[in-house]
Amino acid sequence: GAGVSQSPSNKVTEKGKDVELRCDPISGHTALYWYRQSLGQGLEFLIYFQGNSAPDKSGLPSDRFSAERTGGSVSTLTIQRTQQEDSAVYLCASSLDSLAGYLSTDTQYFGPGTRLTVL
Amino acid sequence: GQNIDQPTEMTATEGAIVQINCTYQTSGFNGLFWYQQHAGEAPTFLSYNVLDGLEEKGRFSSFLSRSKGYSYLLLKELQMKDSASYLCAVRDSDTDKLIFGTGTRLQVFP
């Protein structure tokens, strides 16, 4: 597609339920990133994929959070047993190749985000 | 440690010039990005600096001084549509991660 797409755009769920958020990166982009943005906060890095592997999961806030990427394309972020503090906008970004070198811009292009509200 | 600092809010008048500053401390540096984010929308890429100096792109310019850990985004001939948050982000060379500041919310008044 022309840009990064995410679904759903909005998700309201009850505390304790599981949710799945989907990201479809720009075609041909090998790197994929998940961020979380809470109200009035900066973007918080969650996890990064290079192809299908996730060399950096250090940002996942707890073991309730997991992500996978299949076929080097679509990624799913799963939050189990959601808590109210999980409420935020979850943004996905993709870039051509994060290993492209020092002088490469390797710009990350963001999707529109999924606004998650946990009641 | 890693830290990105930028002002929380700024206001300016249509047609004016505004400079948004960003200072950073990271364990490694591999480029600085500026993104624009309108309320309820995704961040969009504005500029990238990895070498010292000024990068100009139309009404927007971005400056970097690596020795001072300092960057600024300069917006000229402000328009109402420039009202948005401006995010400064540094790519850490050790981890290749983008570390984002909390953003500067700019309001442009007529």
Write the layout of secondary structure elements.
The complex is a heterodimer of chains A (119) and B (110).
Chain A: E1 5-7, E2 10-13, E3 19-24, E4 31-37, E5 43-50, E6 53-56, E7 65-69, E8 75-79, E9 88-95, E10 109-110, E11 114-118
Parallel strand pairs in A: 2-11
Antiparallel strand pairs in A: 1-3, 3-8, 4-5, 4-9, 5-6, 7-8, 9-10, 9-11
Chain B: E1 3-5, E2 9-13, E3 18-25, E4 32-37, E5 44-49, E6 53-57, E7 60-65, E8 70-75, E9 84-91, E10 98-100, E11 104-109
Parallel strand pairs in B: 2-11
Antiparallel strand pairs in B: 1-3, 3-8, 4-5, 4-9, 6-7, 7-8, 9-10, 9-11
Structure description:
The complex is a heterodimer of chains A (119) and B (110). Chain A is an all-beta fold and 119 residues long. Chain A contains no helices and eleven strands. Chain A has strands at residues 5-7, 10-13, 19-24, 31-37, 43-50, 53-56, 65-69, 75-79, 88-95, 109-110, 114-118. The model of chain A has no long low-confidence stretch (mean pLDDT 88). Chain B is mainly β and 110 residues long. Helix content of chain B is 0%, strand content 56%. Chain B starts with a strand and ends with a strand.
**Segments of chain A where pLDDT lies below 50 for 5+ residues?**
none
- Ends distance of chain A: 33 Å
Q: What average pLDDT do the residues of chain B reach?
A: 93
Reported for the largest beta sheet of chain A, the result is: 7 strands, mixed
Terminal-residue CA separation of chain B: 41 Å
* Beta strands of chain B, count: 11
Q: Over all CA atoms, what is the radius of gyration of chain B?
A: 13 Å
